[in-house]
Write a structure and sequence with these properties.
It is a single chain. The chain has helices spanning 2-39, 114-119, 168-185, and strands spanning 46-48, 73-76, 81-84, 93-98, 107-113, 126-132, 145-149, 153-157, 191-193. The protein is α+β, with helices and mostly antiparallel strands and 196 residues long. Helices cover 32% and strands 22% of the residues.
């Protein structure tokens, strides 16, 4: 009887350890899944250039954007804004639009330039997110730099783009454009409501 009692104690302790390990594994899987979903929460639906569209159903990367004449304004109708006074070094700016999904309440535009896209199609120089409502510095509302509040939405500058791993020249071009883009889009006056 004593022998049976000791076995019960040992097996009970072992079950607790097993449950703790299982809980740890599940927690790691949940956190890993959350990170993966959060980081890749958008599937591209449109590569926004004046003449082309790209759908997520395409198995190949989007075609090179048609580089429009260098202008100092880029309209982003999905956001309801336009970028004005674009610096000469990134005037062939273009973007891919990512709509909100069920897990997020914001939309995203990932930017590159025509020249960079031709050299390294998978590289980008920065991202802007559009959130509905009013921005509040008192609560977490996304990682990045708050740029501007509009009437019913606000814009966040998020990151420095997708790194170029093509060659040194592409990396150097991207690094210069990342700096220019970040300095440019973080000035609120360069983002204006799209005229109707």
């Amino acid at each position: 009887m004593l022998h049976f009692h000791l076995d019960m104690k040992r097996s009970g302790g072992f079950a607790v350890i097993e449950m703790m390990i299982a809980a740890l594994v599940i927690a790691i899987l949940v956190l890993g899944s959350y990170y993966f979903v959060k980081r890749s929460h958008h599937m591209p639906t449109v590569n926004k250039t004046p003449a082309e569209n790209f759908t997520a159903a395409n198995a190949t990367p989007p075609p090179a954007p048609t580089v429009s004449p260098k202008t100092s304004t880029l309209k982003i109708p999905e956001f309801g804004i336009q970028l004005v006074n674009i610096p000469d070094s990134i005037k062939d700016l273009t973007y891919a639009f990512y709509p909100a999904n069920t897990d997020s309440n914001f939309t995203e535009a990932n930017f590159t330039t025509g020249v960079l896209h031709t050299t390294a199609p998978n590289c980008s120089i920065g991202t802007l997110d559009r959130y509905p409502g009013k921005y509040s510095a008192d609560k977490f509302q996304g990682q990045g730099n708050f740029v501007k509040q509009f009437k019913d939405f606000w814009i966040l500058e998020v990151d420095e783009g997708v790194p170029c791993m093509v060659n040194k020249a592409a990396e150097d071009m991207q690094n210069n454009q990342v700096i220019t883009f970040k300095q440019y889009v973080t000035k609120p006056d360069n983002l204006q409501i799209l005229p109707k």
